[in-house]
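User: Show me sequence and structure for the first protein, then do the same for the second.

Assistant: Starting with the first protein.
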Amino acid sequence: MTTGCPKPGLAAIVCGTVLLGACAQPTSGPPSRGGREPELRVAVVAGATAVRVGGEGTVVVAGSESFTLEPGNPIRVVADGGRVRIEDRSGSPVDRLTVRGQEASSFVTINGQPYRGTVLVYSGSGGVVAVNVVGLEAYLRGVVATELGNRPRSELAAMEAQAIVSRTYALKNLGRFESEGYDIRASVSDQAYRGVSRESEVGNAAVARTSGMVVTHRGNLASVFYHSTCGYSTASPEEAFRTVRPVDYLRPVSDRRASGGYYCDPSPRFRWTVEWDGRELQDILRRTMPTILGVDEAVVDRIHDVYGHGVGPSRRITELRVAVGSGTIPVFGPDIRRVLETPEGTMLGSTAIEVTATRSGDVVELLRVSGAGYGHGVGMCQWGAIGRARAGHDAETIVTTYFPGTKIERWY
């Protein structure tokens, strides 16, 4: 997800593995309407060999014993036989370390970045886990500007829309990783969260002005998604995901302005082109197809053709076909962006694409893909939200346009 502009995030950014996780049902489930603001357990680090924990201001570290850390004097925590241990410090490994600010103005740092609330450090699957336990509203302050960029006051409505959608996502996913000891992750596999360092005045105002407000459908929390740039229309779930149930409010929505053009056309990723020469294409497909599709790399011997085969409700390609020596390999919507990796090693921008193969004899010599938008395309278009805010739309209008048939309600 670039600095200063919406990320292809989730909840924003990525279709295959990232967002499929967002569809899993939480163990404990979201809180009911009318309760108090919940705390959220956000995995900032998961599966690392080590993590540095310290403070901006004095912090207290509690394990088998308690001690204080002064600013600029972090500790390094490593896994040790299913427990955690502080390097270069005497004492036995412990099940968990708890780190909190000594004063309200003291922030806990994880790998140098400050966070509100408390930090728990323990050994999890794959290594050290650092979890930020923080109130939901404080969490959103570290999400909104990270996801949408540092927007001007004139685009406050877009920030408010992001806050409402991000709050809904967080509440809907409380308890999803209960077995791992946290609720959601701080990366684009859920929502990009960078703590205090990415907060902004306008983002914080958006969170405060929408406090407790969520997207609902028939009285329940909606399943919400968002992405950087739709290009012309949002997508239906079946075009992007394998496991998201079709629902009335997740359907293609045009982003066309009545005056012409599209609300998201200011996006730097509104239109783009990628090219591969024949050798690059073969090398990439021989690497991605075995990992993503389970196809033996030896099958990807000669690339005779690459073409789209079928489009979905939003006109995105739902099946890409790659003709090789022994036949044709189908690549379906959720996998296209990862299989057709760019020469720079990044995921393809979207599946709203036109594919043109230039052949020399019976082998592809050059593949050219012209694309629209960036991200999976489902739900709220972040650059579209910015364009609508510039056009004078309020947050409720923005959200209910991208999720037709929903309401904005105060949950707590």
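Switching to the second protein now.
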Amino acid sequence: MKLPLRVGLLLAATYACWTSAVCLAEDWPQWMGTKRDAVWRETGIIEKFPASGPKVLWRVPVHGGYAGPAVAEGRVYVTDLVTAADTKSVSNPMSRPEINGEERIVCFDAQTGREIWKHAYPCKYAISYPCGPRCTPTVHQGKVYALGAEGHLFCLDATKGTVLWSKDFKADFGAKTPVWGFCSHPLVDGQKLICVVGGKDAVAYAFDKDTGKVLWQALEASGPGYSPPTLIEAGGTRQLLIWHTQALNGLDPETGRVYWSVKLEPQFGMSIMAPRQLGDKLFAGGIGGVSVLLQLAADKPAVTELWRGSMKTGASPVNATPFLENGFMYAVDQPGTLMGVNLENGQRVWETFKPISEDPNARRISSGTAFLVKNGERFFLFAETGNLIIARLTPKGYDEISRTKLLEPTGMAFSDRDVVWSHPAFANKCVFARNDKELVCASLAAE
């Protein structure tokens, strides 16, 4: 049947618009986004929040956890812990209470919030801050990889939730659960799923992503730390970065062979942030004023030290990975300030408590947290207060544009304040964020 010209043109325009929207829409299939660089590349995003806040598309109940959501191919994946215990009342760094519960991986429809499937398994916790899992699921080619706080690793069918293979880091590799649980987000690289296991024989393992077969194992250390495996390219070579409790290491991702190693020991074994590359520079830092900027060699996988930080220079991130651009670093430091740091010499150019605290007189916020995501020429910051903030970050300072209350903080930090410490996802012109009670999807699309 031949369509009238006007109808045909309308259908063609509608199809072109739909396919364009699909092409422009960006998933958030793993921790820190598509490229693990905390950059959200979608356009058509609001410049500032309306007075009433962004339009909430749906809210669904979830249980406790620090794990951020992942969004891929129209589905949202999140992990949590179902337990009768009052995890908030025992959330402090000095205890590891034993708690019985059930960890879950839950899949929702990204448009409606409808539950599609869930996989649950019994799990006994003996960790500090035991509210739930820490790792954002990693979604890749029809599979979802989820790591629980006590070392249960699952590969599931992303559409059905059926288990394809699994590992138990403690039972299978003799690992000991770190004080704050297993936190290193699994990384897919080619045919490999790379994990920080902390087993009795090795720290890092590469598994066949389809079968779970061990492909290689590498490194020994007093503890695995909490930093995720990270890929960079420098010196004409792809390098896998593993930062355990004692050193930052560069490895061959294909074999696990160690290229280089630099001593870097944060207090309490808290190697947490993902090492960040900017051109031929590499930064990593943690609690206690421990940080380093490395020069990446141009002709081979090797590094030299440029400077070491201190309590007054560099940065000591706790929960949030810094953002590097244009010779500058923006980082939330151990005392809770967002700061701008000159990468050339490690000097702190400016600091502010404004995005982290709602108290205008704040002077110190232990482990203060705000997650930074770049979109165009500005940043979205998700603060521990549950506020989502739009701001410009430049070497001159912090320029806040707009903020809105997205979630209530439901967790506890140091028995002195309520917090939400989970990294949001940005996808399909929306923000997806969770606390210990609900998962919310709000539109950030420009009108």
